[in-house]
């Protein structure tokens, strides 16, 4: 996936945490909060998970980091393999399904 520069509209549309998603971030610490949120929003946008940090647009990393109050540099401490990311992927897929269902029931 080629990374392209994101404008403010794209950041707001695709990378803003919804209230239900914010609850799921909960008390996750630092890199886990940022990593989990980025997995969730990437999955919601693209229907799959990023393979590694290189697939995440820098603008999105900064934008999400500000929302969860974590510096973008902290993402370097996120483990891209192992039990934590597997758990985050499972949570993200579950949340994405319920958020999508919620959005379909809202009148716009």
Detailed description of the structure:
The protein has 5 helices and no strands. Helix 3 crosses helix 4 and helix 3 packs across helix 5. The chain has one domain. It starts with 7 loop residues before the first helix and ends with a helix. The longest helix is centred in the C-terminal third of the chain and has 23 residues. The protein has about 110 residues and is an all-alpha fold. The protein is about 60% helix and about 0% strand.
List keywords for this structure.
single chain; 108 residues; mainly alpha
Shape: globular
Mean model confidence by pLDDT: 85
Distance between the termini: 32 Å
Low-pLDDT segments, ≥5 res:
101-108
- Give the topology string: H per helix, E per strand: HHHHH
| Major beta sheet summary | none
Query: What percent strand?
Result: under 5%
Count of distinct strands: 0
Structural class: mainly alpha
**Residue share in helices?**
55-70%
Q: Measured on Cα atoms, how large is the radius of gyration?
A: 13 Å
Count up the helices.
5
Number of domains: 1
